[in-house]
Write a structure and sequence with these properties.
about 400 residues; mainly alpha; 434 Repressor (Amino-terminal Domain); Serine Threonine Protein Phosphatase 5, Tetratricopeptide repeat; flat; disordered N terminus; Cro/C1-type_HTH
Length: about 400
Amino acid sequence: MESETQPMGRRVAYWRQRRGMSQQVFADRIGKSKSWVDKIERGVRRLDKYSVITELAEALSVDSAQLLGREPRRRPGLGGCLDQVEVESIRQSLERYERLGRFLEAAPIDSTPIPELRGAVNYCWLAFEKGHYPVVARSLIQLLRDTPVAEDRPVGGTSADAAELMTQVYQIASTVLRKLGEAQLAWLAADRAISAANRGNDPLLAGIATTRVANALRSLGRYQAALDLNVQVAHGLISEHGGESSSPAAISVYGALLLQGAMAAALAGDATTSDDLLDSASRAANLLGRDANYYYTSFGPTNVLLHRAAAFVELGEGGDALAVHESIPPAALNDLVAERRAHHYLDMSRACIQVGDIERAGRHLVTADRTAPAEIRCRPLAVDLIDQILHRSKGEPAQDVRRLAEEVGALN
């Protein structure tokens, strides 16, 4: 987000673009000319009337303080997060049924060519892996509109191709919404992902979509249901794809299902089952022989270690989690995508709090923030951790931790 030292026009442009409005659409909304908007954004014309600033803020669905460069504390949207307007847009996209347009008397929507959609979905995945959540939100809102239409009226491909792209879109939406604490909406998106995957020709997409459903169930506190789902699908998938002779992609999806099952077991307090599943995932990773990213799983030996550490955290065994962390080769960890690494450092911060090492907890949290800021600034779990670190620090917290707390509005 733009800072107070940057021109207000640039902040107007930032929020206009984030809302998906052209200069002309924005100008029409506020009753001004496109030229007026362009001059404001380029700094040629000054904004010196508070009434005008308030009008612009209302049209952009932001607080006027955000245009003035003074972010309200803990307001959704800090640090590159999705804000409530964007979450609501995704909700509305999930609730629309463009394919029923002929029954709803809706005007027909042009179908986007499938090769173009494939490029947009790949771009959305890359933005997600880097933690660029506003970019993800804008992509999702459009893709949730376009992919159902493409399945109904495919151009440059088949309906099955469009369905496979649609399941990926729903999976990204489910994962982002779960991170933001929108568990019910995450479950809806994940359920849609399963349905779309079954209309495609790639059974592995249905397998990986299962992990999104199970993760949403975990967020809803249904740990046993999440465990059962992951394990059942994992066993069915590996049997169907030839066991140890399965393709690297099938092994990766199988391993990802086992890892998510292990996390569900840990949350249910079942340490034995969690450990068994992690051992099975480790054997699968050894078969794969390297860290890979088939179907955006980041599956491999390193990710198994990350999940083993995370499972210890969920079981309240912070010391064991930190021991696993120390065993991970730094180079291997650094090769993982930013979102995965930041998530791990967040888990290690929790582990440090469990063992009472508050200073080290703060360092891990700062590292996570530097790796993928949205993983810290946008997640309720991370903000709660910052609060804990502030309240349990002896004396003043470290300067980096204090700066992070100020930026997310955690300081009173």
